[in-house]
Amino acid sequence: MSNKSNQILKQAGILAMTGILCRIIGFIYKIPLTNIIGNRGNGYYELAYIVYSNVLLITSYSIPGAISKVMAERLAVNEYRNAQKVFHCSLIYVLIVGGAASAITFFVAPYFVAKETAAVLRVLCPTIFFSGILGVYRGYFQAHNTMVQSSISQIFEQIVNAVVSIGMAVFFVNLASGSDETTIAVNGAIGSAIGTGAGVLTALLFMLLVYRYNHSYIERKIKGDCTTNKEAYGTIFKVIMAMVTPIILSTFIYNLNSLLSAGIFKKVSSVINLYDENTATELYGVFSAKTVTLINVPIAIASALATTLLPNIAGTYALCGEKATSKKVNDSLKMLMIIVIPATFGMFIFAGPIMKFMYPKPGEWELAASLLRILCFDVIFISISTLSNAVLQALGQPKKTVINASIALVLQTIILVVLLVYTNLGIYALAVATVLYAIIMCILNRTTVLRYLSYKQNIMVTYVYPTIASLVMGAVSFSIYILLYKIYPSNRIDLIIAVAIAMVVYFAAIIKLGGISEEELRRLPKGYIIVSIAKKSKLIIG
Q: Is the domain of 348 the same as that of 317?
């Protein structure tokens, strides 16, 4: 593989490690936060966050991917001046659209959601504006194939978010001391929302400083641009809108999936007398804040790989054609499965110990563990669909992702209603429907990608070997956990030891099976260290 391809994996590795670290921080700080604001407070925050996310995608979620693709296509042919125009146009776009979206959401919040959720949503509104600007700067550096700046900003964002969320939640809950449970829960959710805004603002300030530091280098590149193709700002705006609009629609439908599912769950539960409103809100808080937050940790790897691949595939497809692009997609999917398949098996096997580790109080972890055993399979299918989404966008087919997401949403909605009305699954129906949505998206996206890239995935190496290695890992590590628990019944210590052993066993099994080669190991971040350990352990001969 070329140095360019090696760089892609290394940049993806940086962003993936950052994504995992941020998800871990997010998951850990949710533990004390939940103790402070309760499941109902989590429910109010998560419901407000879903609406906020749907508004935010217009000004932020779609921007990094869109700007990185459009800029990468120009940087690939050394059109630095045109690339900078793309950056300027994107800033104008988010300043106008982000400002309008933030103001409109603030005023319509009470008419769109329940009054408890509206109070939390209004606190999140300024963050919509700042997130759009932050998205442009992250997309700018991603287009230059460097993920370090975005990675550091994400870490700062999450740390500040965690600290401020907990601090403000304590402050606002104490402020409502003596009030009813609903008021306390709303106040706690408001404190958490303030933390979200503080994190985004901190990340934005960091990215502004980084851009300012690199300004002289950027100016030299622009002055040295000798290309004769000078695009007008109007033309660039049209290109950005053509790229952004389908991504917005696709992401909107994906986020609408969460909002619609939550709404249907609460409404249908009330109509058929399954749960009252407060109980439904608390159950959704467990589902979203405790379980979905955890599965987002390994999914961060897929998001990182997709973010890195999008501008690279766009440039490769424009310069080198289908064959080189197919190889990148093939290699990326293989590396992704090597990571997410064992993560899925690990969460399924250790669902109970993990949730008991995080929420040790009796009665708090059992439901979350049961939901996790279902939702963990979402990791594999969401990861594949996330990667294929990026591929389709890079190939200039973002409209296809909109169509696929729409079909999946309709089918999932029907399935969820049927499961709630005609079965006794209750909250578990939401978990089953969520996984089925990911499976449908995965199938539709893969079918679509194969229309444009005629590549053949090695099924054994990509899926079978990681699955076999994961089964071996699960059998060995869980047996050790049970043995340790009988000798010294401390769930946390036993779990940590068992998980550490699980990683070593999987690492050894996948190498012995031939699921990953020495060359592929070296491409990973710090891969030479992994190879050195494998050789000393006689896992690799030579």
A: yes
Q: Are residues 392 and 310 in the same domain?
A: yes
Q: What is the DSSP letter of 350?
A: T
Reported as a pLDDT band with limits 50, 70 and 90, residue 199 is very high
Q: What is the pLDDT of residues 106-147, one digit of tens each?
A: 998 888 777 888 888 999 999 988 988 888 888 788 777 666
Domain shared by 290 and 406, yes or no: yes
Q: What is the mean pLDDT of the chain?
A: 81
411 alpha carbon, distance to own chain's centre: 23
Distance, in Å, from the CA atom of 123 to the CA atom of 200, rounded to the nearest integer, reads 13
Largest separation between any pair of C-alpha atoms in the chain: 75
Residues 6+ apart with CB under 8 A from 297: 20, 23, 24, 27, 343
Q: Contact, 473 vs 345, CB < 8 A?
A: yes
| 540 and 426 fall within a common domain | no
Tell me if 44 sits within 8 A of 291, measured CB to CB: no
Per the structure, the complete domain to which residue 473 belongs is given by: 466-542
What 3-state class would DSSP assign to 524?
A: coil
Q: Check: CB of residue 409 under 8 Å from CB of residue 258.
A: no
Sign of the alpha-carbon torsion through 249, 438, 310, 58 = positive
Q: Are residues 390 and 497 in the same domain?
A: no
Confidence of residue 267 (pLDDT cuts 50, 70, 90): confident
Q: Could you say which DSSP state residue 61 is in?
A: I
Residues 539, 426 share a domain:
no
